[in-house]
Amino acid sequence: MRVSHCWLVLIFLACPLCAEEPAIPAAPKPSREQTVTLRWYQSVWDGAYHKVGRRNVRWDSPVDSATFLIAEGLAEVPAAEPRWRELAVELADAALREGCDDPMVQFAARRFRPAAGRVERRSAEVAADWVAIAEALSASGYPPNLKFHAEMEAAAALRSAMPSGTNTWPDIHRHRHAAMNLLLSALADKTTPTIEVTEMVMSERRMVRSNPKQLAASWAQIEPLLRRNWPRLPLADLIDGQLAIEAAWKARGSGTIDTVTESGYRKFTEELEKADQLLTRAWEQDKSNPVAPTKMLTVCLGLQKDGGEMEKWFQRAMEARPGYFPALRAKLEFLTPKWGGSVNALRSFGRQCLKEPTWGDEAPLIVIDVHRAIAAAHAWQMPPAEAVAVRAGYWRGPGVWDEVREALDEVHRRRPNDVEDHNSKRATWSLRCGAWDEFLRVAPALSPAAQKRLAGTNTFEGLVAEVRSRAGGK
Predict the structure, then answer these.
(1) What is d(CA 124, CA 163) in angstroms, rounded to the nearest whole number?
(2) How buried is residue 457: exposed, middle or buried, by Cβ count under 10 Å (0-12/13-18/19+)?
(3) What is the average per-residue pLDDT within 230-238?
(4) From CA 308, how far away is CA 289, in angstroms rounded?
(5) Mind listing the pLDDT tens digit for each residue in 398-438?
(6) Mean pLDDT over each residue of the chain, to the nearest integer
(7) Element (H, E) at 265
(8) Cα distance between residue 194 and residue 442, in whole Å
(9) What is this structure's pTM?
């Protein structure tokens, strides 16, 4: 991770490189599109804060660090910190504790929080917070796309928190209407990056998809702007293809095949075949974008296509962006036993991710995902309590920690300056795998935040004492 601010220095303590270390594979360079996209996000977040934000010397440093992380993360540049969301929230929270009342900072602190999903929204307090943030952002000089996302979050939070028998629909429609106007304003700007356009349009599509009339009416306004301002890019096909995948899995449900109704399975197949056509066409028009071939891996899984077809689309994703993490994870899902794969296929793919130098610094961590998938396969269709015990026991089985440690070592070799992140991952997985001596070795180097995450409801001192007793009192 590139360090540019003092607050980031506090989070990542540098360590000297050993002269005998083997050469570290060069990280993939950002494409021209990624570079332009990064500059745009920097202007939206950091640039806008310096122009219209409520600045103060007490909190400017953590805000600058947060916006730096957010811009790189949203632009998906190779140098982006994998934990950018978590770290950006920590920094935004630090600014708020110092008294910052800037609406963009409040927005970032809530939007990028890992728990900021539907479950969290089912609260009148959370809905009120989102409404306040949306109203403050809309009254500010911040760019339209930030206001759009805040209005959408406010509408979704109000809808999720709405008690039965109440009439909050006027407020929900007010925020939806404001979001739609902001979306059209953003789409009228040809400099808006395709990754942001896609995210905004899909967010709007999800919001109104249960209302066919509204869905058609808004698309009639959106599609002409997409085709006019991005004529050489298949955005309409890419967005429609992803939405078709979502509709397919919603129709099918998340249960086993015997729980799927005949009509649900028919809808599932129809939507995936539609996605197949749309995403294939999108890839043919723009082979530099890894999203279409990555989403096609999910289509291959759902339509039960053979491994050769899956591998064809995986290679297309890797050619577009080597080491694209969503594609790595999508291929892993295809290879799981519950979808017709095998443990041997998973292990082989994990080794490939560990050894392939062109796939970026984080690819070796797929080895951990491989073991997570194998643990899940061992517990497949077991009663919940028994499944939890089986998965927990798997991690302490022979050879598991050795492979997890090898993956962590390889990531650390490639990113030697990320000491705090490495220590946190090492402590987490040594604890999971029952490698007590390793946990006790790294525990003293953990930050207070990492200690708190690991300890949970216990104290960290209590956790260390428990581990020490299991390690034989060392």
Answers:
(1) 9
(2) exposed
(3) 83
(4) 21
(5) 999 999 999 999 999 988 888 888 898 999 999 999 999 99
(6) 86
(7) helix 262-285
(8) 42
(9) 0.71
Helix pair 384-395, 366-378: axis angle to 10 deg: 140
d(C-alpha 380, C-alpha 374), whole Å: 10
List, as one string, the DSSP characters of 223-234.
HHHHHHHSTTS-
Backbone angles phi, psi at 61, to 5 degrees: -65, -50
Of 140-149, 214-223, 250-259, give the lowest mean pLDDT range. Answer: 250-259
Residues 6+ apart with CB under 8 A from 447: 11, 420, 424
How many Cβ atoms from other residues are within 10 Å of residue 97's Cβ?
11
Rounded Cα–Cα distance for residues 315 and 295 (Å) = 13
Q: Are the CB atoms for 52 and 141 separated by under 8 Å?
A: yes
Q: What is the pLDDT of residues 48-93, one digit of tens each?
A: 999 999 999 999 999 999 999 999 999 988 777 777 898 899 999 9
Q: Where are the alpha helices (DSSP H) in 122-211?
A: 124-138, 144-161, 169-187, 194-208
In this predicted structure, the answer to whether residue 255 has a pLDDT above a threshold of 50 is yes
Cβ partners under 8 Å of residue 219, min gap 6: 205
Residue whose pair of structure tokens reads 């999903």 in the numeric block: 117
Place of tokens 């409404």: 131
Tokens at residue 261, please? 């109704």
